Amino acid sequence: MFSRAYRTAVTVPPLVWVAVFLLVPYMLMFCYSFWSVSESGTIVHSWNLDNYHELLTKPVYWETLLRSMWIAARVMFFSMLLGYPLAYFLSFHAGGRKDLYYQLVIIPLWVSYLVRAYAWKTILGTDGVLNTLLQYVHVTSHPLDFLLYSPFAVVLTLTHIYTPFTFLPIYAALEHIPRNLVEASHDLGATPAQTFWRVIFPLSIPGVLAGATFAFVLSLGDFLAPLLLGGPSGIMISNIVVSLFGAAYNWPLGAAISLCMLALVLALIFFSERLEKKWSFS
Amino acid sequence: MELLMSASSSQGSLIRGPRWLTAHALAVFAFLYLPIAILILYSFNGQGVGGFPPRDLTLNWYRILFSDAPIWDSVLNSLLVAAAAMLIALLFGIPAALALDRAQFPGKALFRRLVLLPLILPGIITGLSLLMLFRVAEVKLSLLTIVLGHGTALISVATTEVFAGLQKLNRAQEEASLDLGANHWQTFWRITVPNLKLSIIGAALLIFTLSMDEIAVSFFLIGRDNTLPLEIWGRLRRGITPEINAISTIIFLFSLVAIVFWYRLRTRAAPG
Amino acid sequence: MATTTEPAVATGTRPSSTSLLSIRSVAKHFGKNIVLRDISLEIAEGEFLTILGESGSGKTTLLRILAGFEQSTAGEVWMSGERLDTEPPYRRRVNTVFQSYALFPHMTLEQNVGYGLQIAKRPAAEIESRVAEALAKVKMSTYAKSKPSKISGGQQQRIALARALVNRPRLLLLDEPLSALDANLRRQMQVELKALQREVGITFIFVTHDQEEAMVMSDRIALLRSGELEQVASPREIYNRPATSYTAQFIGHTNLLHADISQGTATCGTLKWPTSLPDGTTLFSLRPECIRPVSAAPTSNATVRFSAALRDQAFHGATDLLRVESDGGLIFTIRTASRDLPEGPLEFEFSAADAIPVRATSLRSTSEERV
């Protein structure tokens, strides 16, 4: 039905753009990771495995990566904890107001990331809203300093950012479940709780996986929240990369770490998609 | 038949939701909106940020904001970048969606992956890879490089939205057009595009907003001129100023207007 | 007002007169929309009752109230002496076969069928044997380990049936379960379902809009029109003695004669026949098969004759359905044995006794002509 000219016209321009601005840059990143930087600060195009050797032998990289993954895991867990029941409530118990509530969940997504991270900064600081409130009502007598400039602050802020993102695919999956399955389950004697665990939850797993992967991957690669709120104990792997492209000026090493992150992310996406396929029944 | 389904929760059914579920939902909403509320509240606080309760309600910070030239320069930059990025993303994203929907070609799977990758990839990777490209190609960093970066990252948004719209499109309409004598080009403009109007506008709005807020990719591609997020970021690094509360409130209000507009658009064009 | 031409015992069925289900003045409103008005019905143990009606008649709503998916706005439902409609669906000894089957896509057919037993925490061995028995009864044993997406619509329907029956409910509700099947399969399933019901002895309440289906399968039919019970009777009774014009038209074909009665004679156009009804105007229902070509037998004044011109002849296999216009200008539908008809005007007759008086209720616009 579609002529060759039509098909070529729609395929070529995006292909070219994608090749130039996505494929080539990744390949460049790949190349950079095998180069090194000289004493005088120029990039030396000699091919070696020094950078990877550095990554494997120096503990700081592993530690930071593991800490980043731990933070990402907690963000994933908490945003799921917040997002799933919310999605369930909207899908099954919100009645006619479902659409309105949905919009209410989406609105924070449209508010700038920076703005929201900044808001948490003002709330959690030693002079911030939370601390002064707690002292005002005499719950604490002096400011709690672990609230800000800690992994806690990073996890809290990222959870806040990513809860709507985990909500979306879970809600979509729940909406997709035919309501007569729920009725059939009740008809056969299952209470709402039993129906949830035996019918609803299994059928929502693809949405859960999609949301979890999204939250985990994006938290893992985040560098802004740690810079604003993480303090020295909250440094994540992307912060190392940022400094390598900045003050610490070692592009090849930075590229190597980025490449590893890319590989890790791709692997996670791959496995998540495999699992999603296994659990999708429509 | 079973279409008379479970509006039953509002029609009086014997099955009610557990109370904790409602409480939980309320708590999550509170969690999502609390920081925003505090931000807005404290933008009027005479004492600046921190302290409880807020006193000295004032518009001082807004006044300072309005005479702050660098901020408004960056706003202008952001608007330009967003407009340009939106054009690029649509110009390449719409054909990409069409190609994925209708064309078969070698490497289609790889193409699909690459186009959609920036959606889920942390911005730092997209930003850094493009930085390396510009370095090797000896292109100076400027608003142009930021435009290119946003465009690349946001093509995926355009493609996703338009692709979804294409799935809903009734293929028979296009076939009828061809049957009645129109060629592909005419069919495209007279039938396909009008049907995709909603998806395209939705995508455009989303892309514009995302570009205005974008920081992760922009962080690495910035030249001399700042976009608004980067301008704010620079000030945040130096310390908190209450002015930030004021500009943040304004950004929030704009976002609110944008989403109400988008919602109206959607419900007007596609009721039910 | 509900018209029950039915004494307490269903005619022509197994002689069980114990009432299982008692529907008392049930009404259902959705906002301003009144879907069910004052429905009262007694359903006997072991009975096969069909709730018959057009779309929008409220039949599915009534079924859903019995299942527990809707709550009535007024009225009560009792089962075996205990209040039913205050219980949530998972506590009722009632099971449902859904129109779209509603099989759980992530479970095997075995797991689907055994679901209710699992919930009831029956021992594993018992579940296994009862599931195997149920699958065998619906002839789906070889598919036990398959998933619903791998089997056809007709097969899914059997599994839905097995899944409901395996729990040995006191009452089985079937919501138009055969409507998605093609004609031949449908006829086959009708027979099988009827046999199954006889075999297991469970009370079936079957909802459909197909009046032929209702007549084939039911012990009794409850005809629902716009949320009210039009007539509740056995198939034979409802066909031969329709109470209203709606019933006469909905079930089978009929001719409706608008007659004036004066001193024992009903007059409709040029036709006259004796009747014992009082003076006034009355509608009479005359089944097409009751009109026959004139025979040579002597007539009495209880036989009405007319000549008519053939307007249309539709071939229905064993019979023909003729449309004729009488010399008085009335249009009749006549069913005769299929054969070629001669040219020119034809002579027909019917017995006065076959003209059944019916109450006029609002007529749907159908292919039946009103005379």
Class of secondary structure makeup of chain A: mainly alpha
Helix content of chain A: over 70%
Q: What is the 3D form of chain A? A: globular
What is the level-2 CATH architecture name of the largest domain in chain C?
A: 3-Layer(aba) Sandwich
The value of Rg of chain C in angstroms is 24 Å
Distance between the termini of chain C: 26 Å
* Annotation, overall tally of beta strands of chain A: 2
Specify Rg of chain A, calculated over alpha carbons: 23 Å
What is the CATH third-level topology name of the largest domain in chain C? Answer: Rossmann fold
CATH topology of chain A: MetI-like fold
Give me the secondary-structure category of chain C: alpha+beta
Order of helices and strands of chain A: HEEHHHHHHHHHHH
Please name the fourth-level CATH homologous superfamily of the largest domain in chain C.
P-loop containing nucleotide triphosphate hydrolases
Strand segment count of chain C: 20
Walk across the major sheet of chain C and give the strand order. Answer: 6-7-8-3-9-10
Q: Point out poorly predicted stretches of chain A.
A: none
Helix content of chain C: 10-25%
Can you summarize this structure?
Chain B is mainly alpha-helical and 272 residues long.
Note down, in words, how this protein is organized.
The complex is a heterotrimer of chains A (282), B (272) and C (371). Chain A has a single domain, classed as MetI-like (MetI-like fold), CATH 1.10.3720.10. By secondary structure, chain A is mostly helical. Helices cover 75% and strands 1% of the residues of chain A. Chain A starts with a helix and ends with a helix. Chain A has a two-stranded antiparallel sheet. Chain A has helices spanning 4-32, 50-57, 59-93, 98-110, 113-124, 129-136, 151-176, 179-187, 192-220, 224-230, 237-244, 251-278, and strands at 36-37, 43-44. In chain A, helix 1 crosses helix 12 (251-278), helix 2 (50-57) packs across helix 12 (251-278) and helix 7 packs across helix 10. In chain A, strand 1 (36-37) and strand 2 (43-44) form a beta hairpin. The longest helix of chain A has 35 residues, at 59-93. By secondary structure, chain B is mainly alpha-helical. Chain B has 12 helices and no strands. In chain B, helix 7 (143-168) packs across helix 9. The longest helix of chain B is centred in the first third of the chain and has 34 residues, at 69-102. Chain C has helices at 59-67, 109-113, 115-119, 124-137, 153-165, 183-200, 211-217, 235-240, 245-250; strands at residues 19-30, 33-44, 48-53, 74-79, 82-83, 94-97, 171-175, 203-208, 220-225, 228-233, 255-262, 265-268, 271-274, 280-286, 292-293, 303-316, 319-326, 331-337, 346-351, 356-358. With 371 residues, chain C is an alpha+beta fold. Chain C contains 9 helices and 20 strands. Chain C folds into 2 domains: 19-246, P-loop containing nucleotide triphosphate hydrolases (Rossmann fold), CATH 3.40.50; 247-358, no CATH class. In chain C, strand 11 and strand 12 form a beta hairpin. Chains in contact: A-B, A-C, B-C. Chain A binds chain C through residues 178, 180-181, 183-191, 194, 198-199, 202-203, 279, 281-282, and chain C through 67-69, 88-91, 94-96, 98, 100, 102-106, 115-116, 119-120, 147, 149, 163-164, 167.
